[in-house]
Amino acid sequence: MSGTVEIADYSFWYGRTQALRDVSLSVPPTRITAFIGPSGCGKTTLLRSINRMNELITDTRYRGDIQVSGGSVYAPSVDVVGLRRRIGMVFQKPNPFPKSIFDNVAYGPRVNALAGEADMADRVEHALKRAVLWDEVADRLDELGTGLSGGQQQRLCIARALANEPEILLLDEPCSALDPIATQRIEELLVELKREVTIVIVTHNLHQAARIADDTAFFYLGALVEFGASDELFTRPREKRTEAYVTGRFG
To answer: 145 pLDDT band (50/70/90 cuts)?
Structure first.
């Protein structure tokens, strides 16, 4: 099914350091799944493995498999550029290109030949509307994206990813650098977007995970400790380590 992620016995190493240990996890489509756990537990490593971003780091290796929409991301026939178009990513710190707002959003469709210039304005407008940013920037699309506020920049980065029509959207601490009002807007946006795209978010904010995630996975020391519906994991965790973490006894 489009937008599914199946992680099977997946391990990952940075040099001699093992970051993930035999993780198996099924991420359902068109839902929000949160990865939580203390710093260094492997949640960001797993997130970046879904679209093979970790390959940009030297001296890494993996064991196991990750399947997206029924196909292995590590299959020899996989085009990594195409894979990252299908699996968009938004990082912790907003990183708009030093280009106009319009060109930021149009960048992916141009590089991936998804739309001609005659259709580009419609695609850009659609992506900005999906990111709930259009009304704020419609009359200044020629201005630099770096001139927007922090929250607007992060929504611009989401629009940039959405312009490629991804099946899955990965977000690594997308609100950690934002104020509470901007954070609320991003959270509301993600809840709307899950109707159309599978969302996986790494967050240290347990309240955020409880608010917006349908499912939550708790990691500790590179291992998956518990995975389930968020309301159950936060109120009736099965594992003692999960209970200790979500109640603030460590982490």
So the answer is: very high
The pTM of this model reads 0.94
Q: Which residues pair with 212 in a beta bridge?
A: none
Q: Which residue has the tokens 């001296």?
A: 59
**Domains contained in the chain, number:** 1
46 found inside a domain: yes
CATH number of the domain enclosing 232: 3.40.50.300
Asked whether residue 163 is assigned to any structural domain, the reply reads no
The residue segments making up the domain with residue 28 are: 5-97+168-246
Q: Average pLDDT, whole number, for the chain?
A: 95
Contact between residue 7 and residue 46 where contact means Cβ atoms under 8 Å apart? yes
Q: Which two tokens stand for residue 145?
A: 């994206």
Residue 1 has pLDDT above 90, yes or no: no
Directed axis angle between helix 180-193 and helix 150-162, to 10°? 20
What's the order of all strands across the beta sheet hosting 71-72?
A: 17-27, 5-14, 60-68, 71-72
> What is the DSSP code string of 105-173?
HHHHHHHTT-S-HHHHHHHHHHHHHHTT-HHHHTT-TTSBGGGS-HHHHHHHHHHHHHTT--SEEEEES
